[in-house]
Amino acid sequence: MDRRAFARALATLAAAGALPALAADPVLPKGPIRVVVGFPPGGGTDVIARIITNKLGALWGVPVVVDNKAGAAGLIAASEVAKAAPDGNTLMLGHINALGIAPGLHARLNYSAERDFTAIALVGKTPQVLVASRTQPVKTVQALIDLARKTPSQVTFGSAGSGSAQHLALALFEQRSGISVLHVPYKGSAPLATDLLGGHVQFAFEGMTTATPFIKEEKMIAIAQTGNKRVKSFPNVPTVAESGFPGFDASIWFGLVGPAGLPPPMVARINADVNKVLAMPEVAARLEEFGAEDGGGSPERFAEFMRIERAKWAKLIKDKKITAQG
Known about the structure:
Elements: H1 3-23, E1 33-37, H2 44-60, E2 64-68, H3 75-82, E3 90-95, H4 96-105, E4 117-126, E5 128-133, H5 141-150, E6 156-159, H6 165-177, E7 182-185, H7 189-197, E8 203-207, H8 208-216, E9 220-225, E10 252-259, H9 264-278, H10 281-289, H11 299-319
Parallel strand pairs: 1-2, 1-3, 6-7, 6-8
Antiparallel strand pairs: 3-10, 4-10, 5-8, 5-9
Helix pairs in contact: 2-9, 4-11
Keywords: Signal
InterPro entries: BUG, Bug_dom1
Family: Belongs to the UPF0065 (bug) family.
């Protein structure tokens, strides 16, 4: 065996020997660890979950797998994780729908977003994009507002469904701008995109992960983004906030949570390792592609962030009399 082969063999043995030590760490879950995702494989939430879980599995030396429990905009996944044992073997990549919007939208849920989860770490916030069909001439926020004021309730806005994050971004925009448009709810982003491309609806707020390919292929017009600052992947698209509406923020966010009662030392360790993963250059680069920024920080930061989001969206839902899609 030559010297290089011997060195490689030693490295392999050392790595293999390190795995049981990591898996035996009393602070970490024993594994295998499921990270439940409330959406199908291939979507933005699923992709972000896989980026994070792959790195955590390598750090911990135990299997960390994504378990897709799609349905009801993430409520099915949240209900399952809320009932799981607080041993760290079942976690969830929480999403704005189930943990931020649903508590204000549904009178009865099978879980309490406030009491049934342990906040671990905010993974990222990604703005939505105000997009337009290329069949209409509007290219700025002000031009859109002028058009809506000239033709009240005739400008058409599609959304991924009544009560969706996309619908609430529209509702917030209507409230702040004082306009009234015709809301056309769809059953998901795919049929909405089809009709927007065909010019059957004029505008929509859509998640950046969904909208980006259409914008880059110049099939849709990007008018504005809904975060509190421009993301690096779209530096030339202004925010709604800088277009005359300071403080406007309708981001879609993702964060790691577990069932209530996770041991504090375990939460602290997982949080530290998620922060470590988010700081890896290759992870940061991938998340930037989706416009996912501002992740990291303490569990307390994430818990407080979710409390503020729940209060914000509950008030808007009440003020605008928004109901869930039947």
